[in-house]
Specification:
Elements (H helix, E strand, L loop, with lengths): L2 H5 L28 H4 L2 H21 L10 H13 L5 H9 L5 H10 L2 H14 L5 E2 L2 E2 L1 H12 L4 H10 L2 E2 L9 H4 L5 H13 L18 H8 L10 H6 L4 H5 L3 H15 L1 E2 L6 E3 L14 E3 L17 H9 L9 H10 L6 H14 L19 H13 L4 H9 L26 E2 L2 H12 L12 H14 L3 H7 L5 H41 L2 H14 L30 H4 L17 H17 L4 H7 L4 H12 L6 H14 L1 H12 L2 H4 E2 L1
Antiparallel strand pairs: 1-2, 3-4, 5-6, 7-8
């Protein structure tokens, strides 16, 4: 779908601002811990990107196919922002970059965005979706797990290290610094499901069908499934170290009335929920096992599906003793099978681990994988452009699984800069003449709409642990409690709880007072800033913005953290958002299954924008877009501002004439129509 086709729905609008480019402060809590250039020089990255282009074009020539043309600057700018930081650029960012005459500005833009806090936010959404992160899950809070993933992105944790930590984590679910246990707790009390999901996520192997019978469409057997499940043998969904401390509480808790005892036990379960057990490496076959290679209930030793064999150090226990242990609910001796699984799975010698993540990152960047489906590799699976894929696999390993550097190489390719292509209607393979044309994800839609409201939406990103902080504090309080304290905590009037609540109220009062003082000091500067913008005095705008930064109010920061409602980026929202939220309306996953997000168009999406966000937050509220349109000197500038803000390009001559006339006749109503039409256009919703 070309730009001409996308434009045909209606004329579009863009917004320009005379403000200086909005850049988040260096102390932003989600800014990556190191710059991409400090790790690897750009010249080396460009050489690797050129190698990818060369291999791809060689493969295309063999198929007598030509690469697509390179896109213009506005299209490249918008695509790069959406891909690397998950939002469209602001008016100031758009105007400044389009006016830049540096021939290397595309390469500079890519590295700058990879170094920005927006990249942390955007990549966190990717992991939240893949790992089915939920803020609330029975007795478990998912916020420590979300904190772990944000921090892994912000600190450039190598992918193989992250996977190892997810597979081997132990301890309390809500203890600070222990968020990695959230991965296995996502399938709490379902270790077989956890193994099936693990194989699908990290090795691209769909083994879940072999859980109940031999796989009907692949080579895997049910016995092989249980041999893999044995690596999670003996997994326990509690923190044994804490649970042991509270065995003696039962007698004292038994003295309390039923309601109090039940509430205290709920607190106790919440505190002791976690992961224990390093893995026994043994799992019995199910009672209804029907194949003739083993009897039902027979213990199966851990064994890998492919690649190198894993040798575990088992204690000398007979099969009959193993059965007696299980019958008496006694633990099998541990064999550190979870660590052995992590060693095998993340090894560069594993035939699938590197392939799958390289393909996932390629699909995330260009819209489709070189192998499709990306998580269902078979014995006979062959990637499209085989020589190219081999190079990507080698590159991922050479980079030691630094996903930001891998993404950097992909973004610097000529392929990334080529015109997008529609998927083939006949179902034939997508050959990558250019990236796949695709609709924004729900998170990209939401974060882009926020960009219409705030000068710098990334300035509103919260500290990595902010949503988890209350969970950590409660866990710390419970860990120090005895039975009497637990009973007291069930009474809201008890001194401990009242003191904690008063401390929180006092913190809020102090924050509000500090906000009020900051606003008082900033008010004269904000008035001068508005005047400088009306006059188009960019130098004074920059000087005032610097002064506001020095006193602690960066341009674009509209509300104190904690009082902005849900007007924060998708990664800082509850996971997933409420079913009625715009994010869910536009297809955010419910996090029940892997990769369950949708980009399908629906009628409620249009109604949500028409009667909800655009009307309340953009057109009627004190939005950045509304402000910039209101201070525009004439109708032509208003039209240009609308287009440059929403579509990040100048209006065509026909679009300019059409909307200037409409504004001249209908005034503010025409401006509202213009913004609504642009934000509901295909050109806005699609990543071109």
């Amino acid at each position: 779908m070309t730009r001409t086709i996308l434009r045909s729905a209606f004329p579009f609008v863009v917004l320009m601002s005379s403000a200086v480019v909005a850049q988040t402060s260096a102390v932003n809590p989600q800014r990556p811990a190191r710059t991409v250039e400090s790790v690897r020089p750009q010249q080396r990255v460009l050489e690797e990107a050129a190698r990818i282009d060369s291999l791809l074009e060689r493969s295309l020539r063999r198929d007598q196919t030509e690469p697509a043309a390179v896109v213009d600057d506005p299209t490249f700018l918008r695509r790069t922002y959406l891909q690397l930081v998950g939002r469209i650029p602001t008016l100031a960012e758009t105007e400044t970059w389009l006016a830049d005459q540096d021939p290397n500005k595309r390469h500079t833009l890519i590295d700058r965005l990879l170094d920005s806090p927006g990249h942390t936010s955007h990549l966190a959404n990717f992991w939240f979706d893949l790992f089915r992160v939920k803020s609330r899950q029975r007795q478990v809070s998912g916020e420590p797990f979300a904190h772990y993933l944000r921090e892994a992105v912000q600190k450039d944790k190598p992918y193989d290290q992250m996977v190892r930590e997810l597979l081997t984590a132990e301890g309390a679910a809500h203890a600070e610094g222990n968020g990695a246990v959230g991965y296995l707790l996502r399938d709490q009390n379902m270790p077989h499901d956890a193994m099936a999901n693990t194989l699908r996520l990290f090795l691209g192997t769909r083994l879940e069908c072999a859980q109940c019978h031999n796989h009907p469409f692949d080579v895997w057997t049910q016995k092989e499934f249980y041999a893999m499940a044995a690596f999670f043998g003996g997994l326990r969904y509690r923190d044994d170290s804490l649970a042991q401390n509270y065995v003696g509480m039962r007698a004292e808790l038994a003295k309390a009335d039923d309601r109090t005892r039940q509430q205290a036990q709920n607190l106790l379960r919440r505190m002791t929920t976690g992961i224990s057990g390093k893995g026994t490496g043994v799992e019995p076959l199910p009672k209804d096992y029907k194949y003739d290679d083993a009897k039902p209930g027979t213990p199966v030793m851990a064994d890998t599906l492919f690649g190198q064999d894993v040798k575990l150090k088992y204690a000398k226990v007979s099969q009959s003793q193993t059965k007696r242990n299980r019958a008496r609910n006694q633990r099998q001796p541990e064999a550190d099978s979870r660590e052995a699984l992590a060693d095998w799975m993340t090894s560069k010698k594993n035939p699938m681990f590197t392939k799958v993540i390289a393909n996932r990152m390629w699909a995330r960047t260009f819209g489709k994988g070189l192998v499709e489906p990306i998580d269902d590799w078979k014995k006979d699976t062959k990637p499209l452009h085989n020589e190219l894929f081999s190079y990507l696999e080698k590159l991922m390993a050479d980079l030691d699984y630094d996903l930001r550097q891998f993404e950097r190489v992909l973004a610097h390719t000529q392929l990334f800069a080529r015109e997008s292509q529609q998927a083939n209607e006949d179902g034939s393979p997508f050959v990558f003449r250019g990236p796949l044309l695709r609709r924004m994800s729900a998170e990209q839609v939401w974060d882009s709409l926020l960009t219409l409201v705030y000068d710098d939406v990334d300035e509103r990103l919260r500290p990595l642990d902010e949503r988890a902080r209350e969970v950590y504090e409660q866990q710390a309080m419970l860990a120090k409690a005895d039975a009497a304290d637990l009973i007291a905590m069930t009474d809201r009037r008890n001194p401990m709880m009242m003191q904690a609540q008063e401390q929180k109220r006092e913190e809020v009062r102090r924050q509000l007072a500090a906000d009020a003082e900051l606003q008082r000091r900033a008010r004269p500067l904000l008035q001068k800033l508005a005047m400088a913008r009306r006059q188009g005095d960019l130098k004074q705008v920059a000087e005032i913005a610097d002064e506001l930064e020095r006193i602690g109010l960066p341009v674009g920061q509209r509300a104190a953290r904690g009082r902005e409602g849900d007007m924060v980026r998708a990664s800082d929202q509850p996971q997933p958002a409420n079913p009625s939220h715009l994010l869910r309306q536009f297809g955010q996953s419910d996090r029940e299954t892997i990769d369950a997000a949708s980009t399908a168009a629906t009628v409620p999406q249009v109604l949500t924008l028409l009667n909800g966000f655009l009307d309340q937050k953009v057109l009627q509220g004190q939005s950045a877009l509304g402000r910039d349109i209101s201070v525009a000197e004439n109708g032509e500038r208003r039209v240009r501002v609308a287009y440059l803000t929403t579509l990040n390009r100048e209006p065509s001559e026909d679009e300019l004439v059409t909307w200037r006339r409409a504004i001249a006749v209908h005034g503010q109503d025409a401006i509202k129509d213009l913004v609504w039409v642009l934000c509901n256009s295909n050109e806005f919703r699609f990543v071109q």
